[in-house]
Each structure stands twice: as structure tokens, then as C-alpha cells.
Amino acid sequence: FTDFLVSQFHLSYISTSLIFSLFSCLGLVFLYASLREVSNFNQKFKWIIFMSILLPSINFWSSGIGKDSIAFFGICLLIWGFINVNKRFIAIILGFVFLLFIRPHVAVVFLPVLGVLVLRIITKLNFKIKIIIMFLSFLLAIYLIYFGVRYAGLSLINIDGYFSSRLHYTSSSASGFEAEGVNLLSILFNF
């Protein structure tokens, strides 16, 4: 995306940075709108909303040139769309597409939620058809996880070896993290 902007539009570093910052800023606007709508425009929560939007880490990590600003925009667009599914279904699809192209492993997490929302919208369907759609959504999520693992150059059989090698690199580094004796669930969340 960055190469396309620079080569086709001859943008400088500052101009490219501004475009990525625009995605981040729009993500913050959608996050603010989501928090404001969830709080039912209650004035008591106004300062909590502002403090969560003005966190320095959100503004810093999501505004640079990279995938994070576009992924942040996609996630915030999804959250905003999930609040009112019937009116914002296009926003959900658009946020999912942004997330699918930038961070497909994060988009896989939202896929079952998207399947449940589709079932919620289509209320006139028979219960058996809803179960079939849910099952197909589950199979699609499994396939996308398998595709993501293969895309990363791993195999499902050798995934334990991958975590063991990452554990060795981390324990031999100067970070001081001792991962010996840590359960598999903690290792999955840390790596």
C-alpha cells in the first residue's frame, strides 16, 4: 500500500504518514462514537470516554506508517458497526475487509461474530437453516485458521516445535523472561 502511494502519487514521507494518520484518526472517531453510543450519551461517563480516547498509547501506536493504523481503523469500524447491525452492515463488511487484508489472523477472530450477526439479521429463516449457516461459518473459520497457519510457514503437526523454538529464543535473550514450567495456554498468549 505504501509503495502504491509513493510510486503512483509521488507522495513524500510526510504525505504518506498523514494518510496513515488519517486512518488512525478515523478509527479514533469510530471508537469515540461507539463508546458514546454504548454509554447512552450519559454525562457521567463522558470523562471516561475522553480518557480512553486520549490514551497516549492508542494515538502513538496507531498513527505510524504501517499495518497498525489500518488494522485499528478496521477494528474500530467493526465495533461501531456491531452496535447497530441493521443500519451499519456495510460498515461491518468494510471493516472486516480492511482487517482481512491487513491482519487476517485478527479477522478470523471476528468471523464467528459476523456469522452470528448474519443469523440475527435473517430472522425469517428456519432453525435448521440457521444451524447449517452456523456450521458453514464454523468450517470457514477453521479453514481460515488452517490457511493462516500454512501462510505463516507452519504445519499443525509442528506447532509445538514452533512454540518450543520461540521459548528457547526468549529464554536465551536478555529479557529475563523465564518460561520454564509455564503452561501452554500462557505460552500461546505470550507468543
Descriptive account of the structure:
There is one protein chain. The protein is mainly alpha-helical and 191 residues long. The protein is built from 10 helices and no strands. It has helices at 2-9, 13-38, 46-53, 56-61, 67-83, 89-102, 104-121, 127-151, 159-171, 184-190. α2 (13-38) packs parallel to α5 (67-83), α5 packs antiparallel against α6 and α6 packs antiparallel against α7 (104-121). It starts with a helix and ends with a helix.
Key words describing this protein structure:
globular; 10 helices; mainly alpha; about 0% strand; about 190 residues
Mean pLDDT: 76
- Total strands: 0
What is the global morphology? globular
The biggest beta sheet is recorded as: none
> Treating each run of at least 4 consecutive H or I residues as one helix, how many helices?
10
H/E topology pattern: HHHHHHHHHH
- What ranges have pLDDT less than 50 throughout 5 or more consecutive residues? none
Measured by DSSP, the beta-strand proportion falls in under 5%
Straight-line distance between termini: 27 Å
What is the structural class? mainly alpha
Q: Over all CA atoms, what is the radius of gyration?
A: 20 Å
Roughly how much helix do the residues carry, as a percent range?
over 70%
